[in-house]
Amino acid sequence: MNIYSRRVAIVGVTGYAGQELDRLLASHPQIQVVGRFASKADEESGAEPFSLEKLGSYAPDVVVLATEHELSMRLTPALLQAGYRIVDMSGAFRLKNAGLYREWYKFEHAAPELLAEAVYGLPESYSEQIHGARLVANPGCYATATILPLAPLYKANAIDSTCTVVVDGKSGVSGAGRQPKPETHFCEVNENISAYGILKHRHTPEMVSQLPGATFDRFVFTPHLIPINRGILNTIVLRPANRASVRSILSDTYATAPFVRVFPDGRMPNVQNVTRTNLCSIGIASSGPNTVIVSAIDNLVKGAAGQAIQNLNLMLGCEPAAGLLS
Predict the structure, then answer these.
(1) Which residues on adjacent β-strands are paired with residue 194?
(2) Cβ-contact 110, 74 below 8 angstroms
(3) 141, 187, 280, 318: which is the annotated catalytic residue?
(4) Residue among 111, 115, 107, 65 nearest 86 (CA)
(5) Closest C-alpha among 119, 81, 220, 214 to residue 158
(6) Residue 114 in 3-state DSSP?
(7) Separation of alpha carbons 101 and 105, rounded Å
(8) Fewest CB atoms less than 10 Å from the CB: which of 90, 142, 145, 275?
(9) So what's the pLDDT on residue 161?
């Protein structure tokens, strides 16, 4: 077995997430990127226009789609039929209910029969299912920073069922993608902070669906755009049930997780300390009936490309942390 024993092709390599994936895989000890495809014409990138015929000439073990939701949705059935395994970095297969795409993404899902098969690609929760999956739906960045601290608490019934869980999210501009938009121009973002997608952000149903017992009427997520290149900081406010210990539940859950770090009392994470790593750092503070959890990730690594590599490692039998920094 040579050093590069696994082969991966990237479709959408010219976007921020695709570029980050290509950069990280360049130092992976076992995975080689054998095909780099642009999802749209981009002569300057050096990436090839995508076609199934050209993809076949590279014989990849897994195809990673770093493409827009609708394009992933259209490409996936043909790729699966051709025998390829897929990690999809878009939101096209993260939800099980096709009706939620109509409500939150504003399109009819073109391959609803695949939603049940797709495995949600959060390795800390679904490692066994990811290992043998044909189709892995890489989680969203905000969703990753929310589900990791909250899922163990919901599973343990440690959140007061009468309280509304409030998630205040802040993201660097790369989270909005590389496609130019008026609201992400330098003059709009610099020296500014703005809320967007209020009560309608697409990561909301993803979060709720991955939090056992969560409901839309008792869960509020508000994202904000801040003038940094990369990083997400979530501030989560909740009320624990009875005398549940948020810290002990999270510490026990992630005691052996290589990429989740629960901070000791009195310490809180920040974006700078997780930048360019695959870490999710979690801090906890409590006073009276209220608890505040702060989580931080790099949206392009743990929130996208790094998590995709975690999934590739599981699918291809590599070491779980291979090619990633903690």
Answers:
(1) 225
(2) yes
(3) 141
(4) 65
(5) 214
(6) helix
(7) 5
(8) 275
(9) 94
Q: Of all residues in the chain, what percent carry a pLDDT higher than 70? A: 97
- What domains lie within the chain, and their CATH numbers? 6-139+303-316 (3.40.50.720), 141-299 (3.30.360.10)
For tokens 């009468």, name the residue. 162
d(CA 231, CA 226): 10
**Which of 107-121, 125-139, 166-180, 237-251 is predicted with the least confidence, judged by mean pLDDT?**
166-180
Q: Which amino acid appears at position 314 of this protein?
A: L
Q: What is the model's pLDDT at position 188?
A: 85
DSSP string, 159-183: B-TTSPEEEEEEE-GGGG-SS--GG
Q: 238 forms bridges with which residues in the sheet?
A: 291
Active-site annotation holds for 187? no
| Side-chain-facing half-sphere of 197: CA atoms under 13 Å | 20
- Please choose, from the candidates 161, 140, 122, 151, the residue with its C-alpha nearest in 3D space to the C-alpha of residue 242: 161
- With tokens 């409030």, the residue in question is 166
Structure tokens at 310: 């975690």
Rounded to two decimals, the pTM is: 0.95
pLDDT (0 to 100) of residue 186 = 86
